[in-house]
Write a structure and sequence with these properties.
13 helices
């Protein structure tokens, strides 16, 4: 087998057996293609099953010299580990050469968040006289109320809205389903959009169940959500660089700051590991630190 065949079989394994989302699989494939490029240039096109730990160390040194950040290196190393675990499981190798390949130290960057007042200012800046105004308001209310990923938002279905029970069903990473509570403000705005605006649209075949639609009656793209938020930030003169994910961070940090149980926040965000959610406890500590420094008489 050549590199292309190995990568193709790994791609199929990730999609069919692991059930990973397209974006995740594409990321794994791109990282393996970097390893392939390195082998073609530096290792006489050696096959992946013949690589040693020394070869892999040479590869990491190579990408580091290209200026790749530690966080990107860490992601690529994770991909290499996953690839060789697959080769072991499929009996294509008997020993994993990546077993001793360690991760670079990565500084944990705290995510940017929005205050409640900043969220309100962004929502207030929406022009409700325009056709897309009520839709955009519903989008922001939902992002902030539920902490959704942008992919989860654009794929939200009407059939997954359980407003009588104050929940929505979300299809997250790896097609995993979870129930997320939704507050009255977001419910009210979604109902306004769906029953007073969307109902008058001509909807394209196959998109009848999508909550948020564009002017052509099709589901919105991720890029469109980024554009909506960027335009609103410019309109109110917000100096922060924000994205749809900023609302997710803001949702989580608000809950943690107000004393929500970390396990509950993990469930609502759809994090596989509690360690991913724990970053919001650092935000909480920073908030407490700022309060002490600003208001304690001995500070």
């Amino acid at each position: 087998m050549n590199w292309t065949q190995y990568i193709k079989s790994f791609d199929s394994y990730l999609r069919l057996e692991r059930g990973l989302a397209d974006n995740s699989v594409d990321s794994y494939v791109r990282d393996l293609e970097k390893l392939q490029q390195f082998c073609e240039l530096e290792k006489s096109d050696i096959e992946p099953i013949s690589l040693t730990i020394d070869d892999l160390h040479d590869f990491i040194y190579w990408i580091a010299n290209l200026g790749m950040q530690a966080s990107s290196q860490a992601r690529i190393i994770s991909g290499i580990h996953a690839f060789y675990r697959y080769l072991l499981l499929s009996d294509q190798i008997t020993k994993d050469p990546s077993e001793l390949l360690s991760q670079p130290k990565v500084g944990r960057k705290l995510p940017d968040t929005l205050s409640h007042l900043e969220v309100e200012a962004l929502i207030a800046a929406i022009d409700l006289s325009k056709a897309e105004g009520e839709r955009n308001k519903a989008i922001l209310e939902t992002l902030y109320a539920c902490g959704l990923r942008v992919s989860e938002l654009v794929n939200l279905k009407i059939s997954n809205l359980y407003f009588k029970d104050d929940f929505i069903k979300v299809i997250g990473k790896g097609s995993k389903e979870r129930l997320v509570p939704i507050g009255n403000a977001a419910q009210k705005q979604i109902n306004i959009y769906v029953h007073e605006v969307r109902v008058h649209q001509k909807i394209q075949l196959g998109f009848e169940d999508f909550v948020f639609l564009n002017r052509r009656g099709r589901s919105l793209t991720r890029v469109m959500i980024f554009t909506i938020i960027k335009d609103l930030a410019e309109r109110i003169g917000l100096k922060k660089t924000i994205s749809p994910h900023t609302f997710r961070h803001s949702f989580a940090s608000e809950l943690v700051n107000r004393g929500a149980d970390l396990r509950a926040v993990q469930e609502m965000l759809g994090h596989e590991s509690i360690t991913t959610t724990e970053i919001y406890t650092h935000l909480d500590r920073d908030y407490l630190r700022s309060v002490i420094l600003n208001f304690h008489p001995r500070s």
